[in-house]
Request: fold
Amino acid sequence: MQVSAKSNSFLIVGGGVIGLSLAWELAKRGQSVTLVRSGSAELRSASWAGAGILPPVAIKNIDDPYDQLRSLSHELHHQWASELLALTGIDTGFRKCGGVYLGTSRAEVATLTANQFWWEDHGIEFRKLDIAELRALEHSLSCESNTIGAWLLPDECQLRNPRHLKALEAACQSRGVQFVEATVDRVELSPQGRATLYDPAGQAYTAEHICLCNGAWARMLMQQVELENGIMPVRGQLLLYQCESPPIRHIINDGHRYLVARSDGMLLAGSVEEEAGYNCHTTDEAINLIRQWAEATLPMLQHTPLVRSWAGLRPGSYDGLPYMGKAPGSNNLYVAAGHFRSGLHMSCGTAVIMADLMLGNTPAIDITAFRVGRG
Ligand SMILES: Cc1cc2nc3c(=O)[nH]c(=O)nc-3n(C[C@H](O)[C@H](O)[C@H](O)COP(=O)(O)OP(=O)(O)OC[C@H]3O[C@@H](n4cnc5c(N)ncnc54)[C@H](O)[C@@H]3O)c2cc1C
Reply:
């Protein structure tokens, strides 16, 4: 039996934020959409695991396509949060909370000092804080011992990604998107360039337009149809504390580490970047490192229950850019994957750009730099 293909139908592979966002965007435009996603724990979505940090974006002189995608997406997140709430009743926790960037070494201070030029050139609001201002802003932080510089970026936002995914799924359902639980393990291209997907039981899936949105796992499916790609899993690990109320108001960033407080007192601490293949388990070593840093930075966490920890696989790419576009040599196969550390942030923009492309409209951003098939 073949699961297919009403005319002008769309088949999305992957139930993370990229697949769900694209499915919703297409369904909003009146298209018939089927989303195939794996229920396997081994393929657990990075989108669920992420922290939901949406850093401020350039608002002027936005020449670079990566920044254009981030800026488009940032703007859309404001709209989508309201639309999703109105449609599904789910509050995704999207809010502008601001971010504080700590410089805890001379090298980090130098980097952040240089970033000031970039922020200025691109219209991003920031303020350098002295230690007294930092203490006044975030009095629970242990900032005197190791902080030698701090900057406030008021436009940083956050999103509760598990809620955002739930809202997207509900929105898709309300717009008639069909969900199929299956793992696609094979892609074949006919001599005419038409792609068909198969699951391990031999069930075939096809459509007028197919988009691979299966994150770090897109690598293998792309390889099967000779699409060179540099997608690689980059493991991250997070801890969750349960505070009585939010102990910090802003997201606290320190290099690649961060603290994010949710409005109900849940507090995330992360993260690390590890090459561990497709292994999505936590390690004592990384969890202890994050814990030591978090509890040194916010000492009240030493007396706060640690609820749980988890790992996720970011879909990294060799050049840091996502793969977005049509597969060369195919007339119905597209890819939207490889968004690395910013997939939650760039999801709305990716959905709009990919929907335009798949519907034959000219996307608002030139996505040549993201082309599928680059090595
Ligand atoms: C610890 C951590 C923190 C992060 N923090 C942030 C952050 O603060 N801000 C931000 O913007 N981004 C963050 N990210 C990155 C972000 O989570 C990812 O870039 C984004 O989630 C990628 O989404 P995706 O839909 O492409 O992939 P995923 O979310 O991984 O989804 C892939 C989907 O495809 C399915 N799938 C896989 N293979 C198959 C198959 N063969 N057949 C069928 N289905 C399949 C999976 O089950 C899953 O549903 C973080 C990531 C991690 C791990």
